[in-house]
Amino acid sequence: MEHPDQYRGKEVVVLGLAKSGVQVAKVLHERGAAVTVNDKKERDQSPEASELESLGISVICGGHPEGLIHPGVSLVVKNPGIPYSVPPVQKALELGIEVVTEVEVAYHLCAAPMIGITGSNGKTTTTTWVGRMLDAAGMSPIVAGNIGTPLCQAAQEAHADNWMVVELSSFQLKGTKAFRPKVGCLLNVAETHLDYHGGMEDYIASKAKLFANQEPSDTAVLNWDDPVCRELVPYIKAAILPFSMTEELVQGVFVRPAFVPDTDDGLKRMIVYRDYSESETEIAAVDSIGLPGRFNVENALAACGIAIAAGADPAGLAEVLANFRGVEHRLEYVADKAGAAYYNNSKATNSKATSMALASFRKPVVLIAGGLDRGSDYMELLPVLGGIKALVALGQTKDKLAAVAGMAGVKRIISVDNGESAAAVLQEAVREASALAEAGDIVLLSPACASWDMFTSYEERGRIFKEAVHNL
C-alpha cells in the first residue's frame, strides 16, 4: 500500500471493529480517506460504532452487505483474524484491490525503527523481555501491537529515538506488503493455525514475510535449533544473528555448555554472545534466569539477540534476565493447594507449547488440556504424555487427547463435560485435577488447543482457571 496520506478522497474499507480496526479507521479518516467500517457483529455488540460515526466514519454492522467491495474501493484493511475466505476479502482480491492488515498501515506511519517478533510459541514473553532490556539500556522502547498500545496509535506517537517492539502473528504478517523491520526475529515454527492458513506452506510463508523486505543493514534473529528457521536462510538478505541452546555458534547467542538430552544435569551453563570478530561476552548464568523452563531459556537467548541487534550492551542484560518474572497465562504460577503447585499456561494453544511446558517440570504433573478442534491428531504429545501422572481432558478435543494419553500409558484419564457453562466445565476440571494431585505434584493447565470452542479467548480461560484454583 501507499502511505496513508495518499488515500485522501479515496474509498477505504476496514473489516472488523476490534481495537486495531478502530485505530486504522481513525488514522485513514484523519488523512481524508472516505472510510467505511464493516463488522459482522450486530450493532448492539459493537460499542465502538458510535464513536466512529461521531467522527464522520460510516459503520455497517450485522453482516457483509452486497456492494460493500466494488471497483471504486482503493484499499481494504482487515482484522488479522478474519479469514481470507470471507466474501468481502475474496471480492477485493478478485478485483485486484490491495488487502492489508494494521501492521502495514502502522509501518508507513512509524518514525521509529521497528523490531518484529514472531513464532509459534514464546512471542509475548520474548517481546516483553526485549522491551525491558531496551528500557534498561535507555533506548526508549514502545511495546505495542498484540500487547500494549494498539500499533497504529503507537506508531503515530513514536519518534526517531524510540524503538517500536512489536509482537506479530502469522495472521498479521500475511497482510503485509512493504513492512520492513530493522530487526526481525523468528522464534520457532510449529504446526498451528492450519484451519486459517490451509496448510504449513502458507503458515511458514506468512511468518517468512517478516524478512521479505529486509536489507543487509537490517538483522534477522533466527532460532538455529529450528530446522524451518534454518531453511529460510538462503532467502534472507539481512545480516543473520542466530541463537542456539544446542550448538556453540561461530557468531550469535548460545548456551555453553550446550543442552544435551539426558546428559547435562548439574552442568554450569552460561549464556554467551560471540560477535562477528569472535569476541565473546558472558551475559549471565542460565540458572539465574527469572523464568522456569527450558523453553524460557530459548526465549531469553532470542531476547538477548534482539536487544544486541538493536544496540544494547550484552554485558548489561543480566539484571533484566534475572528480574523478569514472566507474563500472565504463560507458565504462570497461581498458588499452592494442599502441597500441590498450580500453574496457568492457558496461552499454550498448540501441542509444541504444551510439550515445552511439560518439559519444564521434574515433579509429577496432573495435566488439564483440551479445547478447539483444528484437525490435529495430537500425536506430537505422545512422547511427553507418557511422563504425566494424570490427564483431565475437556473441550472439543477431549476424546482425541484421552486417546493419545491412553496410547502413552497414562493410567488416570478423566474427561469433563458435565457443566452448564464453559466456566463450570473448567471449574469441574480443576476439582478433578485437585482430587488426583498429592503434595509435591504440579497441576498444569496447558490446553494444547485454542480456546474458542468454550471461551472468548485464552485470557478468559486462564482467568477462570485461576479463580477456580483460588476457590478450592
Description:
Helix content is 32%, strand content 21%. With 472 residues, it is an alpha/beta fold. The chain has 3 domains: 4-100, Rossmann fold (3-Layer(aba) Sandwich); 104-323, Mur-like, catalytic domain (UDP-N-acetylmuramoyl-L-alanine:D-glutamate ligase, 3-Layer(aba) Sandwich); 332-470, Mur ligase, C-terminal domain (Protein-Tyrosine Phosphatase, Chain A, Alpha-Beta Complex). A 9-stranded mixed beta sheet has the order 7-8-6-9-10-11-12-13-14, sandwiched between helices. The longest helix has 17 residues, at 294-310. Its EC number is 6.3.2.9. Pathway: Cell wall biogenesis; peptidoglycan biosynthesis.
Which keywords apply here?
472 residues; alpha/beta; Rossmann fold; UDP-N-acetylmuramoyl-L-alanine:D-glutamate ligase; Protein-Tyrosine Phosphatase, Chain A; 3 domains; 9-stranded mixed beta sheet; 6-stranded mixed beta sheet; 17 helices; 32% helix; globular
